[in-house]
Write a structure and sequence with these properties.
Helix content is 24%, strand content 28%. By secondary structure, it is α/β, with parallel strands linked by helices. It has two domains: 116 residues, Rossmann fold; 85 residues, Regulator of K+ conductance, C-terminal domain (Alpha-Beta Plaits). One of its GO terms (molecular function) is potassium ion transmembrane transporter activity. Keywords: Ion transport, NAD, Potassium, Potassium transport, Transport. It holds the Pfam family TrkA_N.
């Protein structure tokens, strides 16, 4: 994929490096001259300019990108970049960084955001996951579809131990997408057995999350 990242600070550079390692084409757009350091991520294309300006986005060829990531430290800028990318340049996928959790409600499809990533929320979710085996933890919200990525770790005494995935009766708007078992990532098949300690990742709408707990015996 071709990915444009607005903001070449520590976060933007880290994302760029990861994507380049995954063999994606990356463009970094940075407005601050002191942050404009092409040698820091040499494999990326660098653009010096304000990603909140239509002219800069046009010159950078952002309409050719499959994904735009608004990764600046300013929520207002991230919203503007998201809106322009989606409405003016019809970018298929827009991901935005949420710096202040109080602003999270703004990061929705009305502002062109497909996926909002809130670092404070994700860190809190990781803490909850670490201390609350058996509880459903919301990791991420996909604004465009009104769905969430949620996780539940099966406790040692789970009644599902040894039972196949096919015996899970999940609600209509929920799907088990991955099982994390130790260092393994398992794409669940109907015959795969569940084990204590499995981390189950679901994509589901918020209103059916209680039904997922019920289906897992809670």
């Amino acid at each position: 994929m071709r990915v444009a990242i607005a903001g070449a600070g520590a976060v933007g550079r880290s994302i760029a490096a990861e994507l380049i390692d995954g063999r994606h084409q990356v463009m970094l757009i940075e407005r601050e001259a002191d942050q404009f350091e092409p040698h820091a991520v040499e494999q990326a294309d660098w653009v010096l300019g304000d990603a909140c300006e239509v002219s800069i986005l046009e010159e950078s060829g952002i309409e050719q990108c499959d994904v735009v990531i608004a990764a600046t430290g300013d929520d207002k800028a991230n919203l503007v970049v998201s809106l322009l990318a989606k409405t003016e340049f019809a970018v298929r996928r827009v991901v935005a960084r949420v710096n202040n959790p109080a602003n999270e409600w703004l990061f929705n499809d009305a502002w062109g955001v497909d996926v909002a990533v809130s670092t404070p929320r994700m860190l809190a979710a990781m803490v909850e996951e670490a201390v609350s085996v058996g509880d459903l933890v919301r990791l991420m919200t996909f604004r465009q579809s009104n769905a969430n990525l949620v996780e539940l770790t099966l406790p040692a005494e789970t009644p599902l131990a040894g039972k196949p995935v096919s015996e899970l009766t999940l609600p209509r708007d929920a799907a088990l997408v991955t099982i994390l078992r130790g260092d393994r990532v398992i794409i669940p098949q109907p015959e795969d057995p569940l084990e204590p300690g499995d981390e189950l990742l679901f994509v589901a709408t918020a209103d059916v999350e209680p039904e997922i707990r019920t289906a897992l015996g809670y």
